[in-house]
Specification:
7-stranded mixed sheet; 14 helices
Length: 335
């Protein structure tokens, strides 16, 4: 099997999420919340022979690739799989015994990046390098596609979406061009959309470090898959599913994602998250977690040089002390 995606911050994940020492035993249980092609899981299983992993992924096609890659670990139940969104899994964690064996995980990893497989092999328009249907859904059986958004959303809403999710300074010009183009015919391919964006921006903008369509494609992918909407409640539910003493790690690639994770982890590390005007503490009055990465862990120069998608990756990790409550979720949204 040809491996398309290289896992980012792999050595750092193996170190920070190591199932070695107290309170872990020889049969630690990990949930890989974003399995992809199985790169992180494969290396964790190789390095830690007593570890068992449950891999989650919303995309059944890439999960099939992961199953093939991880076939040697199927026997003995070291590797199991769940096909679905991670927020759905964790929100209903108490009823997931079929997949967890009734255990709480000792380790949880989220890698919020999109696999290179999706850009190169999925055929769903994640990249404008290929002329593909403009879809961008990780689960192609549900929700709006990117084509649905660009062909139906009002111009102002589209401009706001592009700017909010990508900081695209040409968002209004791009949204206007898209809305003008779709009057004559629907925009249904990644190549067609990229060409519309390219023609919409000034000449000076066409020759920068990235293609003029890059940020718009990113914004559409985030919107289509509700990536930011799913994240806050997912990591909160995942943290509460974690065993006491267990570790939760999140790899982000986008400033809005990282802000959500940073703010939530910061709340977990506080002794009190009640409003200042509240006379009596009702949040528990002690930290819920020990923050293991005071600053985000970033890739080395060597990793960026050999695996360019890692350049914006940031890893944050906490160790659980006690369950969190809804107060810890306050003020963690990126918007």
């Amino acid at each position: 099997m040809e491996i398309v995606h290289t896992p980012v911050l792999l050595n750092e994940c193996l170190e920070y999420l190591s199932p070695v020492g107290e309170p872990f035993e020889n049969d630690a249980f990990m949930v890989d919340s974003t399995l992809g092609e199985g790169g992180h899981s494969f290396n964790f299983l190789k390095k830690y022979p007593g570890l068992k992993i449950l891999g989650l992924d919303a995309d059944k096609n890439i999960q099939a690739r992961a199953k093939e890659r991880l076939a040697e670990f199927h026997d003995g139940g070291r590797m199991r799989f769940f096909n679905g969104w991670f927020n759905d899994f964790y929100s209903d964690f108490e009823n997931q015994g079929e997949y967890t064996g009734g255990r709480r995980p000792d380790l949880i990893l989220f890698d919020l990046g999109i696999s290179v497989y999706h850009y190169e092999r999925s055929g769903r328009g994640f990249s404008f390098r290929h002329d593909e249907p403009l879809d961008m859904r990780l689960n192609s059986e549900e929700g709006e596609s990117a084509a649905d958004i660009v062909n139906t959303m009002k111009e102002e809403e589209l401009a706001n979406l592009i700017y909010l999710y990508s900081d695209e300074k040409m968002s209004r010009r791009i949204a206007k061009a898209i809305c003008q183009a779709r009057v004559s015919s629907s925009i249904v391919s990644s190549k067609a959309l990229a060409e519309i964006i390219y023609e919409a921006v000034p000449a000076s903008y066409k020759h920068g470090n990235i293609h003029p369509a890059t940020r718009t494609f990113q914004a559409l992918r985030i919107a289509v898959n509700s990536e930011l909407r799913r994240l806050p409640e997912a990591i909160h539910a995942a943290f509460n599913a974690l065993s006491v003493g267990g570790k939760l790690g999140v790899i982000t690639f986008h400033s809005l994602e990282d802000r959500i994770v940073k703010n939530y982890f910061r709340n977990l590390g506080k002794s009190c998250v009640c409003p200042p005007e509240q006379a009596i503490c009702s949040c528990g009055g002690s930290p819920c977690a020990l923050i293991l990465t005071r600053k985000p862990v970033e890739p080395s120069e060597e990793e960026v040089r050999t695996n360019s998608p890692s350049r914006s990756a940031k890893l944050r990790v906490v160790r659980k002390i006690r369950d969190a409550n809804e107060k810890h979720l306050l003020h963690v949204d990126a918007m």
